[in-house]
Backbone:
């Protein structure tokens, strides 16, 4: 299936080909540099996770090491609290709706741009690509007023629809390039056999497009899961907050009880880290696809 | 792949068949155009294009967002923006972020990419670790580093105590805070650029490097004369993302400093949020949005025109 993609996706696991065997000196130099940088990446994450197991007093005296006494209840209390699961659920729901609508709308529009020649087609495609040029924040106030006037303020849809809209440019571009690279013979054959555009889209284009659906889906999901500014402005009630807003509220409430905040941060980023290591190949290829295509 | 359809024999495409087919195609187009385009078009127009246009319109009014904008103020909002010292600070900070991205982040990413594409054990694991911060939400990264920088409990405090000096409160220090944030930006984003460079390095034809080897080039010469020129398009692309991304920075600033202390760490987007959204100054905030829009589009277009015209 992958031979259809125009540029090979970026894959962290592709071993470098060729190259001479490295001398012991070079190897040591490489490992020392890499380990130092890896430590700078890992140590903050690790101390965050471990910090959640300490008492506040111990955090002050011993921020680096293992906890003397593991305070499991820091984590336990959060895990049995309603707010953690509510925020995770909100984030998941908003992300799922965003991904579904982005895939649906972008695939349909891109299919039209790829296969149907019509007056103004190129102009319309460029119209969508304008969305790639500027950040969502530039029009955030008019967007707020629009969502309010539509009565969508403080609803999930009020966050989902703008997120879909801002993701469309990139998604349509990725889908269109992919559809255009499907072999033309497929389309000719289907058309001669009396298969119309709609059936062709559903029975041939989509089943062949799993790699690009995965790519667009990942970009859209990660964007929504991590998004902060749109929900911040468009949601008011705490029981609808996704987790990035939830962290900020939690920090506001517990201010210097860092052991609780660290446990909370750890639990909120844990799903991301697990999914990243489980599906790293797809996630890296997906998140860099927008850049290389 | 081809199991779904038989290859067409070209014999079908007689001139008669073609015209009939063309007519049939034209008729078949309508359902697609009517069903497939409108959802995307509607959502995009309503939530991206119209708000952008409205931002330009509102920016000429003094308006608190209720009823209709009536108090026309001309270019007053724009004047106020450029007179505002916090906005000037935001511009400086955005410039600084771009500078750091170009001078430190991208070279660091390239340096690491050349190392993890070498033939060593664990290279893949290092790549994954370096990419990890990029996957985390900006808010989470900001919060983690708020702890790291905390002068009472954090890692910086721990290191200071170990060295026997008083712990600094970097995020509360007007002059140092922005540099502390720049560190987090590099920490968060270098992995993304590294991945781009890994892809670029893997696309380089190994025989060119071998030829350089035979000619007796040193490692540094090979890098400067062969690898770097061949990576040109990747470098330009990476810098492009660094510049565009720098202009949008918001999520990370909020948990770290909330744009303080006393506006020292404002960026254009945090400025828009603090002075436009928080105070419900729709006209003023929209004007900030327009300025940001113009800067983004000018930089993006200009950059593509000047540096990426051949890519």
Residues:
């Amino acid at each position: 299936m992958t031979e259809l993609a125009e540029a090979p996706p970026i894959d962290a696991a592709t071993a470098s080909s060729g190259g001479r065997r490295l001398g012991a000196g070079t190897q040591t130099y490489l490992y020392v540099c890499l380990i130092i940088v890896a430590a700078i990446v890992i140590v903050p994450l690790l101390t965050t996770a471990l910090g959640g197991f300490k008492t506040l007093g111990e955090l002050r005296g011993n921020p680096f090491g293992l906890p003397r006494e593991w305070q499991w209840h820091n984590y336990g209390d959060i895990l049995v609290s309603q707010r953690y699961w509510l925020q995770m659920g909100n984030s998941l729901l908003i992300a799922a709706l965003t991904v579904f609508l982005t895939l649906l709308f972008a695939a349909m529009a891109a299919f039209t741009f790829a296969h149907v020649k019509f007056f103004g087609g190129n102009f319309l495609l460029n119209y969508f690509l304008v969305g790639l040029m500027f950040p969502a924040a530039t029009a955030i106030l008019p967007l707020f007023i629009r969502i309010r006037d539509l009565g969508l303020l403080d609803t999930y849809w009020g966050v989902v629809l703008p997120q879909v809209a801002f993701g469309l440019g990139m998604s349509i571009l990725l889908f269109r390039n992919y559809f255009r690279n499907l072999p033309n013979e497929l389309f000719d054959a289907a058309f001669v056999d009396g298969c119309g555009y709609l059936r062709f889209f559903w029975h041939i284009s989509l089943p062949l497009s799993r790699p690009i659906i995965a790519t667009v889906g990942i970009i859209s999901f990660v964007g929504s899961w991590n998004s902060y500014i749109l929900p911040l402005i468009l949601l008011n009630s705490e029981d609808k907050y996704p987790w990035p807003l939830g962290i900020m509220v939690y920090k506001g409430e517990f201010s210097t009880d860092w052991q609780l905040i660290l446990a909370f941060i750890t639990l909120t980023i844990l799903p991301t880290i697990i999914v990243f290591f489980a599906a790293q190949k797809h996630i890296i290829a997906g998140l860099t696809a927008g850049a290389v295509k | 792949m081809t199991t779904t359809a038989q290859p067409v024999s070209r014999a079908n495409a007689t001139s008669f068949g073609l015209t009939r087919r063309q007519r049939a195609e034209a008729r078949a187009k309508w359902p697609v155009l009517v069903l497939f385009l409108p959802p995307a078009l509607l959502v995009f127009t309503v939530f991206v294009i119209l708000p952008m246009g409205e931002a330009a319109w509102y920016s000429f009014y003094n308006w608190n967002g209720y009823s209709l904008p009536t108090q026309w103020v001309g270019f007053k909002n724009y004047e106020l923006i450029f007179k505002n010292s916090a906005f000037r600070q935001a511009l400086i900070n955005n410039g600084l972020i771009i500078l750091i991205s170009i001078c430190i982040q991208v070279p660091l990413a390239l340096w690491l990419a050349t190392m993890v594409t070498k033939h060593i054990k664990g290279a893949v694991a290092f790549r994954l670790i370096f990419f990890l911060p990029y996957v985390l939400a900006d808010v989470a990264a900001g919060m983690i580093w708020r702890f790291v920088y905390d002068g009472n409990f954090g890692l910086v405090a721990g290191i200071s105590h170990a060295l026997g000096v008083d712990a600094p409160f970097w995020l509360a220090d007007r002059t140092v805070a922005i540099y502390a944030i720049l560190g987090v930006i590099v920490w968060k984003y270098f992995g993304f650029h590294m991945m781009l460079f890994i892809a670029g390095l893997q696309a380089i034809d190994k025989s060119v490097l071998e030829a350089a080897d035979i000619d007796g080039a040193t490692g540094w010469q090979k890098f400067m004369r062969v690898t770097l020129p061949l990576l040109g398009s990747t470098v330009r692309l990476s810098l492009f993302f660094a510049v565009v991304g720098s202009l949008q920075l918001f999520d990370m600033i909020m948990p770290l400093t909330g744009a303080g202390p006393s506006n020292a760490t404002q960026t254009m987007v945090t400025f828009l949020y603090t002075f436009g959204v928080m105070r419900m100054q729709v006209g003023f905030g929209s004007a900030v949005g327009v300025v940001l829009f113009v800067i983004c589009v000018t930089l993006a277009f200009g950059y593509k025109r000047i540096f990426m015209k051949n890519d």
Summary: Residues 81-241+271-292 of chain A form a domain with the MetI-like fold fold (CATH 1.10.3720.10).
